[in-house]
Amino acid sequence: MKVGRMYKESVQTPRLIGTSGWKVTARTLLKSRWTRGDPLIIVSPTPLYGLGLIESVLHSYVYPLRTLGFPIHEVLDFEAWKYNGRGFTDFIGQLFHWSLSRCIILSGDVHYASSVRSRLTSKREVLDILQFTSSPSHNMSFSGVWGKLMKMAIWGNARRRVKKTIYRYCDVGFSIRNGGKAIDCPKDAKWQEALRYLEMQGGTIVETENNIGLVTVGDAVIRHSLLQMVRGEMKEIHFEDSEASPV
User: Fold this and answer.
1) pLDDT tens across 138-169, in order?
2) pTM here?
3) Contact, 235 vs 227, CB < 8 A?
4) Secondary structure of 61-128 in the HEC alphabet?
5) What is the pLDDT of residue 142?
6) Is the alpha carbon torsion for 167, 213, 201, 56 positive or negative?
7) Domain parsing of the chain, residue ranges
């Protein structure tokens, strides 16, 4: 029984920002020239929407090794927002409280770059979120045999998400569930969402090579581009454009 309790506790990730942190953030924002209802760009070191394969492997197989004494927390950053449903719900609850006309999240990840569009619904309120994630310009996370295998698995997993809408909701216990379809969401859900990974040129939704992100917000469209050095020359690739105004 003791081992079982240790395992359960080991896979519970911390809230990345607590109540006091949100209060400080809200005060700082309201002291600026921003007013409720304006668009907002948020910089989050950890993506609100990560890539499911990496997060699932870490959650189910790697992170529980802490119970055996392995210093996993010192080797890998186990920081997926979705594995703390209450923390994730606090995040989006704050966004709804601010009544944003548009929300853009800029984030980074040591493994990959991606773009995600989400439509969140809570108590008949609707919020559209665009998240743009880029990778560091010198990324060594896919070195060695393990890195190559993980890279192949990521590409395979990403291919299955192309052109697909993922439906999720948060149940009363703050667990985030995949709904399968929009109609599968229970009536007592705290929120529900439909999210889709945006495609890049060539039809993929993820880039694992070194890159620096460039986001351009125009009057009509928002574009997430990736800048890469290829044989000494700068190369730019981009994800599909998003409408600048909420859909």
Assistant:
1) 766 666 665 666 666 666 666 666 678 989 99
2) 0.80
3) yes
4) HHHHHHHHCCCHHHHCCCCCHHHCHHHHHHHHHHHHHCCCCCEEEEEECCCCEEEEEEEEEECCEEEE
5) 61
6) negative
7) 2-210
